[in-house]
What we know:
The chain is α/β, with parallel strands linked by helices. About 35% of the residues lie in helices and about 20% in strands.
Amino acid sequence: MRALTTLVLTLAFAFGATTAFGPAARADTGQDLAEQAGRALIGQPAPRLKITTLDGRTVDLGKLYGKKAVYLKFWATWCAPCREQMPHLEATYRAAGSDLEVLAVDTGFADSADKVRAYRQKLNLTVPMAVDDGRLAKALNLRVTPQHVVIGRDGRILYVGHLADARLDAALKTARAETGAPDPRHPQAQAAKVYRTGDLAPALAPRTLDGPAFAMRDPAGARPTALVFFSPWCETYLAKTQPETGAACREVRETMEAHARGGGVRVLGVAMGLWATRDELAGYRKTTATQVPLTLDETGDLFRAFGVSGVPAVILLDARGRIVKRVDGASGLQAALAVVAPRKPSPA
């Protein structure tokens, strides 16, 4: 495992990375992030939620608690460690009896159901798969891929981790042996309110990397605002696994930096919290030399609030804070900015 992780990291550097962003980071870092995400979850009643698999089967988690253990693995098609661990997941599913439910949950980030189906077919996988709509990620504090969540037969969260190792196997064994009635307080996983074109953006002011808050609506009501959703590892790690996406991230960053220098639009970079920390975001800023204010959406709440499940994406607000345009990718961004912020950007 260490050898493969080192190889992935080497490839990331070869494609322009100067630090270990995202899934190319060390495996022990992934385990640390997963364990941090699980600290508030361990021992708590697992969420109630109905999940529809790619094959059309409905998995009602609430009805499983008290009857069988549940193993949820968050993953993504672009994630190298996820691919490395797939044999373990497949073997666990095939060996599972009536006391264990196994489900591979694609994060839905920079992914689609079609990509997941193609991936499953290519690797000849039989484990049930589903694509998250954001509710499970929020309820289970998704921070890395893969992220393993093991729920005991008593319906309580027993383990959260990143590695397919002895700790995960021990947790699965313990979960299947758990007894007891499920806690009646199992929370219902709720979908977040999504703000769309025509809506007034929420009056939020997230803290930037340097500390000051950035109000999404211009307090002076004078300039439009651009919220740029990205990942610190989009231009590096995804340059290998999804080169078109990596190129689009770079183009959007350069375009928005130019417009921010021109002064015609307020710009806030919103970094996805998946596989990212404040230190890594600071490293991204240093590597790219960007002057645009950046904030880390550690919980993913901002991405969910605007319905963003891929990068790059730009949400444009008018001077009053109303959403007037959304641009996914780099295509069409210049034209949208010309309407919302007609002032020409300064020369690079």
